[in-house]
Design brief:
single chain, 98 residues, mainly alpha, 6 helices, globular
Length: 98
């Protein structure tokens, strides 16, 4: 089963191949993660998502993207806006400032 897309996942996908600090900067600039979340904690969420994705059977990797999977690991660090951006499908209709 495929993971449904989110606004958060789209932003993460844009920076997923960049260095982790660029992704963290984008999440912070967009107001999606709490100010007290450490950069190291955020980096660990990216690594968990990548590791979990790599552990999937190859056939399932096409239907489960690590950029969407990371929202599960980011959940404790998300602001209210970040949580809204992590809602599958419904978040796609949100404006960038919400």
């Amino acid at each position: 089963m495929a993971i449904a897309p989110t606004n958060l996942g789209r932003l993460v996908a844009t920076y997923w191949s960049s260095d982790e600090d660029s992704l963290i900067q984008q999440l912070r600039q967009a107001g999606l993660v709490k100010a007290h979340a450490s950069n190291e904690d955020l980096r660990l969420t990216f690594r968990k998502a990548r590791d979990e994705h790599k552990a999937l059977p190859r056939a399932n990797q096409d239907f489960n993207s690590p950029n969407e999977r990371v929202r599960v690991f980011l959940e404790p660090y998300l602001t209210d806006k970040g949580a809204r951006w992590a809602v599958p499908l419904r978040s796609l209709d949100l404006p960038d400032d919400d």
